Every structure is written in structure tokens, then in C-alpha cells.
UniProtKB/TrEMBL annotation:
Keywords: Biological rhythms, Signal. This is Protein takeout. Belongs to the TO family. InterPro entries: Haemolymph_juvenile_hormone-bd (IPR010562), To_sf (IPR038606).
Length: 198
């Protein structure tokens, strides 16, 4: 999957390119509006499955995976506050998740085409559980180096809090990306070819 599957229009996964996404949080200690463009996800192809459960009668798959290091690199625009500190900037973001456990829950439905049954994924849920998160945002506070360095230091000292507040938004945005990639395969390859009977 590193180079994708051109015949099925599956894009390369190293890196996986995403055009953009918006992250909004509106309550709690972290209130930030973030817009990302030109996103690159590095490290997905180093993932390995740690558990796999298929309930094909009900068109459901549950898997856990671990990724040693996933880098989320993108152009960003951000404005908001963390605890009592204002934060704003426009530049390049690098969010690194170390030893990232991802819980995948895929819910499908049958689609019959030309006498073959396909499994279309109608809902794809993910949960991110990183061992550690490293955050870096360039050009914070219009390039004020002292303020930017101090804020990046503060973000990393409180990375668990910051990431936990933003995690659900990242999960929702990236699950739709994973769903799209999965359906590029599942919508074109019949179930009995993906899941051959013993």
C-alpha cells in the first residue's frame, strides 16, 4: 500500500495526502479554531495489526493497530486560547504521535452488483491512543520567535491536555479519510475476494 493501488484509484499511503480539514473546539481549557491544508500523514505504512475481529454476517470489522511514529505535517491557520493563554499563528504544523494505538471500527452494508456482494463502509470510527505527542507550530504570533518558542514549549509541557481536547476532532476528520480509502477497495472488489472462505 506504500505506493497505492492505481488500478483501484487507491492513493499512495506514504505519505497519505489530504487536501484539508477544519478542527473546532468550543469548550473546556482548550478553545481553538484550526484550518489545515496540504496535509501529509507519514508513517501509516509502518503500522501493524495487533488484533482483528470480523463479523461478516453483520458487515462489521474491528481492528487495533500500532504505528511507531505518525507525523501529521500541514500548513495551518490557528486562533484561540489554551488555558488562559491566547494563541494564534499561520505557518507549518508538525504533530508527531509516538507509539500510536489506533482502534478501528468499520460498519458496512451489503451492495449487490452483477450478482456479486460488495461491502460498502457506511461508518468508520477511529480512536487514537498515543504514548506521547510532540507538537510544533512555526510562525506563531506573526513570527515573534520568543513568544513562539515559549508557546511551543508550553504546548509540549501540556501535550496530553492539549491533544486530549483536540483528539475527537482529529479522529472524526481522519476517520472520513480512512473510510474513503477503504471504500476505494471495498466498492470495487467483491467480499469473497477480500475475505475468501476457508
Amino acid at each position: 500500500m506504500t505506493k497505492g493501488i492505481p488500478a483501484l484509484s487507491v492513493p499512495p499511503l506514504e505519505p497519505l495526502l489530504v487536501s484539508g480539514m477544519n478542527i473546532e473546539t468550543g469548550a473546556g481549557p482548550v478553545v481553538i479554531s484550526q484550518v489545515y491544508h496540504n496535509i501529509q500523514l507519514h508513517g501509516l505504512t509502518d503500522s501493524r495489526l495487533t488484533s482483528y475481529k470480523a463479523d461478516l454476517k453483520h458487515y462489521r470489522l474491528r481492528t487495533d493497530s500500532i504505528t511507531p511514529k505518525m507525523d501529521f505535517i500541514a500548513d495551518y491557520v490557528m486562533k484561540g486560547r489554551i488555558l488562559v493563554l491566547p494563541i494564534q499563528g499561520k505557518g507549518v504544523a508538525n504533530i508527531t504521535m509516538v507509539n500510536l494505538v489506533v482502534k478501528h471500527d468499520l460498519i458496512g452494508e451489503p451492495v449487490i452488483k452483477d450478482g456479486e456482494t460488495y461491502m460498502h463502509i457506511k461508518d468508520y470510527k477511529v480512536k487514537f491512543i498515543p504514548e506521547r505527542v510532540i507538537l510544533h507550530f512555526s510562525n506563531l504570533f506573526n513570527g515573534d520567535k520568543a513568544l513562539g518558542d515559549n508557546m511551543n514549549k508550553f504546548l509540549n509541557q501540556n501535550s496530553d491536555l492539549v491533544f486530549n481536547e483536540l483528539k475527537e476532532s482529529y479522529e472524526k476528520s481522519l476517520s472520513s479519510v480512512f473510510q474513503d480509502v477503504t471504500n476505494k477497495i471495498f466498492d470495487k472488489v467483491p467480499m469473497n475476494k477480500i475475505f475468501p472462505e476457508e
